[in-house]
């Protein structure tokens, strides 16, 4: 995940996307990760990070390039093995569970680079996921419902290859939603979109959280993270730098230093 980084301090006051989250996360955590460490040979990509996400809560992961966000995201979703620590979903230990097992339990992810079946229609792409839950007509109805939810129903018959970037991102989201997840992991779903596309995606993500989904998102666009997240974790060099309310994190001196560098750098 690479991309331009903005200073959180610079954007902390922006409200282009409607300011603070309006939904109310509730209940015990759906996802709990404790003391996650990931090593690649001698590189400690993630060091002793703990987090929890409740239903309806949006957790934003931020940090400069190479901070370890992707690796942590992958450790949560099972695409990378944690060297140490524990991950629990809905109270169940999933530390050693494969990604497809986690998906079946209700954890769905999107990929930074969307990978639809280009020759299949939008509906067929979603059906591939819907068939994991339903059969025949029920799967088709479910896929249509999901396309309605992400605003792609009018594109159902179109080949995925003909979609523009904003619609491809929504198709990626639709494929994840077809699994009827309780938690969504969004890997830079907004980066690269133009402002109207960003606003649509922000509104959609907010709706999904309001409907009770727990969400973890990695995103480089700071004003998006700041306006959407209930809780922000900022990492640098694999370690936790700061966490808490988005505006407190944006104002944290260590976070500002990590993004802007020291004067004597
Ligand atoms: N498969 C791997 N093998 C070895 N080192 C890796 C591997 N994946 C990541 N790393 C290293 O782990 C560190 C964290 O990388 P990671 O991609 O998780 O950071 P990031 O915060 O997502 O960065 P970016 O925002 O640039 O995508 C980096 O030093 C990276 O080089």
Brief overview:
The chain has about 260 residues and is α/β, with parallel strands linked by helices.
What does this structure look like?
By secondary structure, this protein is α/β, with parallel strands linked by helices. The protein folds into 2 domains: 20-106 and 183-264, Rossmann fold (3-Layer(aba) Sandwich), CATH 3.40.50.300; 110-180, no CATH class. The protein is 35% helix and 22% strand. It is built from 10 helices and 10 strands. The chain has helices at residues 8-11, 69-77, 99-105, 122-130, 136-149, 165-177, 195-210, 222-228, 246-251, 253-260, and strands at 31-40, 43-53, 58-62, 84-89, 92-93, 107-109, 183-187, 214-218, 231-236, 239-244. The chain has a 6-stranded mixed sheet, sandwiched between helices. Strand 7 (183-187), helix 7 (195-210) and strand 8 form a beta-alpha-beta unit. Helix 4 (122-130) crosses helix 5, helix 4 packs parallel to helix 6 and helix 5 packs across helix 6. The longest helix is centred in the C-terminal third of the chain and has 16 residues, at 195-210. The model is unreliable at 1-16 (pLDDT under 50). The structure holds adenosine-5'-triphosphate (ATP). Residues 1-2, 40, 43, 45, 63, 65-71 line the site of adenosine-5'-triphosphate. Adenosine-5'-triphosphate (ATP) is lined by residues 1-2, 40, 43, 45, 63, 65-71. Keywords: ATP-binding, Nucleotide-binding, Transport. It comes from Deinococcus metalli.
């Amino acid at each position: 995940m690479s991309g331009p980084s903005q200073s959180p301090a610079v954007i902390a006051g922006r409200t282009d996307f409607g300011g603070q989250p309006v939904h109310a996360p509730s209940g015990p955590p759906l996802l709990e990760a404790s003391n996650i460490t990931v090593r690649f040979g001698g590189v400690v990509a993630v060091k002793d990070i703990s987090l929890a996400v409740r239903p309806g809560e949006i957790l934003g992961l931020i940090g400069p390039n190479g901070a370890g966000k992707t690796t942590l995201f992958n450790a949560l979703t099972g695409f990378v093995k944690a060297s140490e620590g524990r991950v629990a979903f809905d109270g169940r230990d999933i530390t050693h569970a494969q990604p497809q097992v986690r998906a079946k339990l209700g954890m769905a992810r999107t990929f930074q680079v969307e990978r639809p079946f280009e020759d299949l229609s939008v509906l067929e792409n979603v059906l591939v996921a819907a068939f994991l839950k339903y059969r025949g007509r029920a799967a088709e109805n479910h896929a249509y419902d999901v396309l309605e939810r992400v605003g792609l129903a009018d594109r159902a018959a179109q080949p995925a290859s003909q979609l523009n970037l904003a619609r491809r991102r929504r198709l990626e989201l639709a494929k994840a939603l077809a699994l009827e997840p309780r938690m969504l992991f969004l890997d830079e779903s907004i980066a690269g979109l133009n402002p109207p596309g960003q606003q649509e995606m922000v509104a959609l993500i907010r709706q999904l959280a309001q409907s009770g989904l727990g969400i973890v998102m990695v995103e480089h666009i700071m004003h998006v993270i700041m306006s959407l997240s209930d809780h922000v974790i900022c990492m640098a060099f694999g370690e936790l730098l700061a966490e808490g309310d988005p505006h407190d994190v944006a104002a944290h001196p260590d976070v500002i230093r990590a993004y802007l560098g020291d004067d004597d750098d």
